[in-house]
Amino acid sequence: MHGGALAGWLLMALCAVSGAYCLLRTRTATPQERRTARGEALMGFGMAAMAVPAAVLTPPEGAWAVYGVVFGAAALRALWSARHGSHHLHHLVGSLAMVYMAVTMAPGAAGAGGHAGHGAAAGGAGGVPLLTGVLLVYYALYVLRSAGHLIPAGTGVASFAGGSAEGVVRGGGDGVVGGTTGGGTELTMACRLTMGIAMFAMLLTL
Questions:
Q1: Within 1-127, where are the H helices?
Q2: 9: Cβ contacts below 8 Å, ≥ 6 apart
Q3: Does the first or last residue of the chain, that is N or C, have fewer Cβ atoms within 10 Å of its Cβ?
């Protein structure tokens, strides 16, 4: 993200493709998987819009309020759905992270970065450092855990990546990565890995 507009365009493209794939999953998945896929599609497209370089498109002032309302509602839905599966807790964290970034980057916010796709040019950190750091650690562990599920079992890298985040992000079964609850194919996990990396990169711009 600090590399300029090119990094913003790359993140926008990756998130948009991930969101589109999640929409495609809704056509063939089970009802529960469709609900999960719709939530992930919303996250992907929301991150794509937020990653557009500000030099190309400056969002209207009210856009940040819309982000807050949409992802605030998504967070409430994820919290309610968490009764039926712990993988929804990851959606809750993601939605709250989107609300946090929207509030931080809104015009008038103290130290606002102005736009996730243009963080370097804005010059100046925004947000609460401790909260930003906690989210960065969470997504770093999430990415390691997701990568561990994609690397063939039995390799040293897979063992390290799979175990390093065990206490924070749980996989398999009804965890946030893997298992069948969320549609745990390799492509689905790769999509979630991509969005996790994108979220980590966007948080770095605050």
A1: 5-25, 31-51, 62-81, 87-105, 119-122
A2: 52, 53, 117
A3: N
Distance CA 146, CA 165 (A): 10
- Which structure tokens are listed for 159? 């063992």
Which amino acid appears at position 148 of this protein?
G
CB of 194 within 8 A of CB of 18? yes
Q: Which two tokens stand for residue 1?
A: 């993200």
Q: Which pTM value belongs to this model?
A: 0.75
Whole-angstrom Cα distance, residue 171 to residue 61? 39
Distance (Å) of CA 148 to CA 86, 140, 181, 193, 194: 19, 12, 18, 10, 14
Residue 33 corresponds to which tokens in the numbers above?
A: 């998987």
Q: Token pair 């400056």 is at which residue?
A: 58
